Amino acid sequence: MASLVTEKSTSANPKDERPEKFKGLDFKRWQQKMLFWLTTMNLANIVKEEVPKSDEDPLSRETLLTIEAWRNSDFLCRNYILNRLDDTLYDVYSECKTAKDVWDLLEKKYRIKMQGAKKFVVGKFLKYNMVDSKSVVKQVEELQVLIHELHAEGCIINDY
């Protein structure tokens, strides 16, 4: 009798562990997964660094090699990021020249949306009122949901 148990293969190749495509929602989660993935490929620094420049004239061989290595890493990083975007977002961000440009523009656009969501949740919490027409247990459950939403947005509520 054949065994029905299958083994789950664990991949040592970081390219196999890529994050899901970003469709415009849950940017923070996608960004963290993407940064981890880029880190496993030694490319995370590329989204933070500017194009290397030098005042040397003419450029030394070492400087030329450094710039060429950066360009190669930037090419890979930029395309890894673009390929983890939904097609509609890919079309918008593919015009960016460097991985840092793509990363910064995504962060600028979607961090602002995240801040709006945070303000919305904080507003709901601050406006919450207990009423006599509902049971206390039901209202405590609603309050717990609001507190959980606040925690999900990174807000901390002191116990005092």
UniProtKB/TrEMBL annotation:
Superkingdom per UniProt: Eukaryota
Segments of skewed composition (Polar residues)? 1-13
A single Pfam family it belongs to is Retrotran_gag_2
The UniProt annotation puts the region (Disordered) at: 1-20
Protein name per Swiss-Prot or TrEMBL: Uncharacterized protein
